[in-house]
Specification:
Blueprint: H1 2-40, E1 49-54, E2 67-77, E3 115-121, E4 124-132, E5 134-139, E6 144-148, E7 152-156, E8 161-166, E9 176-186, E10 197-201, E11 208-209, E12 217-225, E13 227-228, E14 231-232, E15 250-264, E16 272-277, E17 282-285, E18 288-291, E19 294-298, E20 304-308, E21 313-320, E22 328-330, E23 333-335, H2 338-351, E24 372-374, E25 380-381
Helix pairs in contact: 1-2
């Protein structure tokens, strides 16, 4: 009976918001297929631009191998209550599956505090980069963290992990802004069943490139992973595709003031390179005007020059050499074959990937906005003051 209940519970998770996200992912994949056809019809000898497509209004963005998924959360939450929840009536929202963006924010799968309560993953990594606001992490291996305001968390789900990602609200006197990217990076077949792990990259550990290098101006670039000139990012987790330099994985956030300019150097690695231009932006890339809400695929063997023609904005860059293996996805599991997906379900029903030792499915870590991480090893780390 217990295993049947667990199976029903997992299917409920998948059939809810996770599949609503994946539905958007399949739509995004269709858009990406169209963009690949467009590339064949564009001249590429004078520009690094291969193709451009419009990003979906909501939900995940299209990605290319080795990336699986990318979403931009940009919520303007209201003032908070003492319990870190929104100080406003939640009527009119489909609590438990609220992606409505009503009044500029969503509860997602949260019932009281917004976020994503307990859910499983296997076979890939999540990279969460927070520009503004806080995220509380808890997992089935007893680890936990509170991070945000410039920090990044890199989680290797590997053989399987349950975790929650909740968004505590702290300001009781004004709005609570939450702005972050979550990116899913695939694992190669030989690492899909490695031990789960996560690493924290605090804001002061992430290199920032200022505006006075290489002809750039009015720009600040955060190098989450990958190298630029003499700047090296923090070391990627040991089992990640990004840990091998020849795979040329780069995740950069390029922040441009008005009239800002930035040159992305070429690479000979054969990496796929995509830029995500946020809604409301007005950019020029290699002399072509690019409107906001666009994904621009680039030839990474050529230099690319970006100019900001509008208000202050940011661009996300994802780059990497493809893994070039079959990808079979079902909800929170990403493997190489259907039988491996079935095995993931079997293993989750049997072990719950370590179970859940927290008192509820959506834990938060106290009422003070103090950053910390308790790693899977038990070691507690905090950012430097």
């Amino acid at each position: 009976m217990k295993s049947e209940y667990q199976r029903r519970r997992l299917l409920k998770i998948i059939a809810g918001g996770i599949l609503s996200i994946m539905g958007g992912l399949f739509s995004a994949t269709n858009n990406l297929a169209k963009s690949k056809q467009t590339r064949k019809n564009m001249k590429t000898n004078e520009t690094s631009i291969l193709s451009k497509i419009n990003l979906p209004e909501t939900g995940p963005w299209p990605t290319e191998d080795p990336f699986l998924f990318c979403v931009h959360h940009n919520d303007d939450y209201p003032a908070a209550k003492d319990d870190l929840s929104p100080n406003i009536l939640l009527s009119g929202r489909n609590l438990g599956n609220d992606f409505s963006n009503k009044d500029g924010w969503s509860m997602y799968h949260g019932q009281k505090i917004p976020g994503f309560p307990r859910h499983p993953h296997r076979g890939f990594e999540t990279l969460t980069v927070v520009s503004k606001g806080f995220i509380d992490h808890a997992d089935s291996l007893g680890a936990s963290a509170r991070y945000g305001d410039g920090d990044a968390q890199w989680l290797t789900a590997g053989d399987g992990i349950n975790h929650s990602e909740m968004f505590p609200l702290f300001s009781q006197n004004g709005n609570n802004k939450l702005d972050f990217f979550q990116i899913w990076l695939n694992l190669p077949s030989y690492n899909k069943r490695v031990e789960p792990n996560f690493e924290m990259y605090w804001e002061d550990e992430i290199p920032k490139i200022s505006s006075n290098l290489n002809g750039n101006k009015n720009v600040l670039v955060e190098i989450i992973t990958g190298d630029y000139l003499d700047f090296s990012s923090p070391i990627a987790p040991k089992n990640s595709w990004a840990s091998d330099k020849k795979n040329d994985v780069a995740v950069w956030i390029i922040r441009l003031d008005r009239n800002g300019k930035f040159a992305i150097p070429d690479t000979k690695s054969g990496a796929k390179r995509n830029l995500y231009v946020l809604k409301g932006s007005n950019m020029e890339i290699d002399g072509q005007n690019i409107s906001g809400g666009s994904m621009v695929s680039l030839d990474s063997s050529k230099n690319t020059v970006i100019k900001n023609l509008g208000r202050k904005t940011k661009i996300l860059m994802l780059q990497g050499v493809p893994i070039n293996e079959p990808v079979v996805k079902y909800g929170p599991f990403v493997m190489n074959t259907r039988s491996e997906i079935e095995q993931a379900f079997y293993d989750y029903n049997r072990t719950e990937f370590g179970g859940w030792k927290w008192g509820n499915s959506d834990p938060v870590h106290g009422t003070e906005p103090e950053k910390f991480a308790k790693l899977i090893s038990g070691k507690i780390i905090k950012p430097r003051k």
